[in-house]
Amino acid sequence: MKDPRILSEKTTYETFTQEEYMEMKSDLLRPVQTIGKWGKIWIAFLIMVCIAGVVAYYIQETRSKYVTVSLRDYTMWGVYISNFVFFVALSLIGVLMSAVLKLTHFEWYRPLSRIAEIIAVSAIMLAGVSIVAAMGRPDRLHYLFLHGRIQSPIVWDIIVILTYITASLILLFIPLIPSLSTCSNHLHNKPKWQMRMYEFLSLGWEGTPEQWKVLKKCIKILTVLVIPLGVSIHTVTAWLFATTLRSEWDSTNFGAYFVSGAFLLGVAAMIVAVFVFRKAYKLENYLTPMHFDKLGQALVLMSCIYIYFNVNEYLVPAYKMSGLHANHLLSVFIGKDAPLYWSVVFFGMFVPAILPLFKAMRKPVPLTVIAVVVVIAAWFKRYLIVIPGLAHPYMPIQDVPKSWMHYSPSLVEMTIVSATFAAMMLIVTIFSRFFPIISVWEVAEGKLEGKDEIINYK
Amino acid sequence: MESENENNGRRKFLKFGLLAGGATIASIGIQKNLLSEEKPLTGKKVKVLTADGHLVEVDSSHVEHHASNDPYTAEEIRKGVEGRKFIRVIDLSRCANERKCVEGCQKAHKILAPVEYLKVKRMQDSELTSPYWMPTMCFHCDNPPCTKVCPVDATFKRTDGIVAIDNDRCIGCKFCMAACPYSARTFNFGRPEQKKFTEANKDSIPDNYCRTSYAQEGTVAKCDFCTSRCEQGLLPACVVECPNGAIFHGDELEDTVTNGEDTFRLTELLRSRAGYRLFEELGTKPRVYYLPPVKRQFPFEEATEAHNTQE
Fold first, then answer.
1. Do residue B149 and residue A149 have CB atoms under 8 angstroms apart?
2. Could you give all domains of chain B from N- to C-terminal order, each with its CATH number?
3. B74 in reach of chain A (CB within 8 A)
4. Interface pTM (ipTM) of the complex?
5. B88 near B225, Cβ under 8 Å?
6. Is the dihedral of CA A300, A302, A305, A308 positive or negative?
7. How far is it, in rounded angstroms, from Cα B165 to Cα B157?
8. % helix, strand, coil for chain A, step of 5
9. Quick check: A183 pLDDT over 90?
10. What is the pLDDT of residues B72-124, one digit of tens each?
11. From the centroid of its chain, how far is CA A370?
C-alpha cells in the first residue's frame, strides 16, 4: 500500500465524480433518447434505398438474368462477388479496432469498440446477402447444408463466416449487458416494448462483483477467439480465388494480402464512422481529435503493410512476366483497366501512406476526407481483383458477342450493391438509436482506473 | 409349452391372413383408381417394342420413363457406363474451321448460339509459327479442378471418365466456371431466345440427339461427350458431323479411337503422332489429346466472318 503509484491512482479515482458520471451517461444516452429530424430523414433515405434494392432483386430473379444482369460466361462473377469480398474485409474492423487494441492495452479503444463491433456484424451479414444475390439458384441455398462437401472452399467459407457472425454477435452483446440496464434505468418516455426489451436482454444484470467477474472473463475469451476467426474468414475468402487454376489469382500470398487490405479498410472505415457519430450524435467529448490522430497513424502503418503485399502480389510476377500472367498483368498496367488500377494504387495506398504523416492531415476533417477516398478505392480494389482477371483467361476469348467480352455492371446490379450499403448503414444506425453506441461502462471504468488516455493524451 | 406355441402360431397366421387380405383389397382399389385416372396426352410419340415383337409408336404419357428419349434423371446421370473409359483425340491437321461440329453439337443439345459447348479457337503459338484452328471443349479431366470446388457435389467425375453435371443439384455459384482453366463451362442466364426455343422444341428429337438437355436456368452446362450416345455405342454429335474426321472418340480400355471412318490404336496414334494435352503443366490430366497441326490437309485460312455477333 506504500507504492506511490497506487496512491496516485487513488487520487485520480476521486477526480471522477458521481456528477461527472451522470453527465457522461446522459451524453451517451442522448442519441437513444431523442431522434432529431435529420436522423429520421437519414433512416427514411436508407430504407428507401433498401426497398429499391429489394425491387431490383425481384426484377433480377423474375426476369431473364441475361437481360437484367451483365454477367456472361467469361466474367461470370461480377460486382456481387467483389462487393462480397469488400464486406468480408470490412467485417475485420471488429478484430482490429476492438480485439487487437483491447488485448494490446491501447486504452483509446474503449469508445471505439462498440462502433467497430456493430459495423463488423452488419458487414458480415451483408456479405452473405451479396453472395445470395450472385447465386444462379438462390432457391437451392439449403442444398449447401443438405449436400455440402467439405472439400469445397465455399463450404469452408460458410463455416468460418457463420462462426464469426456468432462470435461477433456475442462479443457485441456481452459488453452491452451493463449498458442495457443503464438504458432501462435512465431512459424515459420510451415505448413500453422498448423498456421491456432492455429488461429482457439485460438478463437480470445487477452489477454484483461476481457478475462483473464473469462478464470480464467472457469478454476476454471472446476477444482472443475472434482474432483467429477474423483472420480465417478473410483468408478463406482469399482462397475462394487462390484455389482455382487462374493465373491472376494463382498466388501463395493471397490470404495475407487480403487480410492486410482488410485492416487498411477497417481503419479507414473506422475514421469515417467516428467522424459521423461524433458530428451526428455530438460526441465530441468522447471521440476526440486524439482518436483521429491515433487512427491516422494506424492508417499509415496499415497502408505500408498493404503496399508491401501489393508489391509482392504484382511486381514479382510482373518482373518475370510469364506467358500465363502477362495477359492479365498488362491489361491492368497499361491496358483497358490501367486508369482504374493506377487510381486505386494512388488513392488507396499512397495517399493514406503519405498524407497522414503530417500532423495537420490527422485532424478530423482532412483525415476523414482521406479515409473516404481510401474506402472508395478499397471497393474498386476488390473489383480489380475479381473482374479483369476473369476477362483474361488462358484460352483466348474469340467469336463472342460484344457484351461477353466487356463487363460493366447493369443498373439492377448497381441498385442491389447500393442497397447492401444502405442496409449495412441502416443496421448500424438503428442499433445506435436503440443502444448507446459508445460503451458507457467501458469508458467509465477506464476513467475510474485513471486512464485518461481513453479520450486524451496523458 | 408346445400347445401354447401352436396356439400362438395359429393366431399369428390368422393375423397375417387378415392383413394380407386387407392389403390385397386395398391394392386392387388403388390399381383401379390408377387405371381410371387417364393421364393427359403429351402429343410426343415414342417407339416401344411390344411383347410379340412389333415396333409401335405410342404417346409418351403411356410410358413411365422412356430411357432413350427423356433427359437424364438425377440418378442416371451419376452412373458411369460400366467397363468404359471414354477418351478423345483431335487431329489438328484435319481441322479447317468449318464449324460443323459446333452446329451439330448445338443441334444435338438444343442450344442456340452464342452458347457453344464446343468452340473452335484460332491459336498461334508464336509470331513465327503458323496459326491453326483448335476445337476445344470440356476435357473431362482426370484431376478436374471444377469438381473439387463444387460445394454441393453437383458436378462430379463418373467411372467412365465423363465429368457430368446434375442440374437438379446445381446452386449456380459458378465456382466451377472460375476454377476451369479451359473456360469450358457455360452458364444458363435464361436468355429469352433460348427459353423460347427450349419451350418450342421440348418434345422434338433432333439428329444425333443427346439426352443431356441444356441446363436449367441458373445452372451450369458444358460438353458432356454426348453421354447418352456414348452409352448406346454411338459416336458423339461433333464426331459424326465433322466433314474432315478431325475428332476421334473412343475407349481407353479398348485402346481404340475412331472418327467413324478410320479407327486407330490409341496408344500407337498418340506415340507416332506426338499427341499432347492442353496445359499439361496445370496437372489437370485432360482426357482429350491433340495431334499437332503438322502435314496439314488444308492451308490455314482466316475466318472472315464472326459467327456469334448477335447478343
1. no
2. 40-70 (no CATH), 74-291 (3.30.70.20)
3. no
4. 0.88
5. yes
6. negative
7. 9
8. 75, 0, 25
9. no
10. 888 888 888 999 999 999 999 999 999 999 999 999 999 998 999 999 999 99
11. 17
Q: What is the pLDDT of residues A333-378, one digit of tens each?
A: 999 899 999 999 999 999 999 999 999 999 999 999 999 999 999 9
Sign of the Cα torsion A245, A248, A251, A253 reads negative
Parse chain A into domains and list their residue ranges: 19-454
Neighbours of A407 (CB within 10 A): 23
- Does B189 contact A74 at a Cβ distance shorter than 8 Å? no
**Which letter does DSSP use for residue A224 in this model?**
H
- Kindly calculate the radius of gyration of chain A based on its CA atoms and give it in whole angstroms: 24
Does residue B210 carry a pLDDT above 90? no
- B126 in contact with chain A, both atoms CB, cutoff 8 A: no
B34: burial class by Cβ within 10 Å (0-12, 13-18, 19+)?
A: exposed
Q: Global pTM? A: 0.88
Handedness of CA A269, A275, A279, A283 (dihedral sign): positive
- Most B CBs within 10 Å, among A390, A395, A404, to test the B interface: A395
Q: Report the C-alpha gap between B281 and A245 in whole angstroms.
A: 11
- Euclidean distance between CA atoms A238 and B115, whole angstroms: 30
Q: Which of A71, A152, A245 sits opposite B282 (nearest CB)?
A: A245
Interface test with B, best of A57, A131, A152 (most B CBs within 10 A): A152
Cell (9 digits) for A48: 428507401
First to last CA, chain B: 87
Q: A345 — phi, psi (to 5°)? A: -60, -45
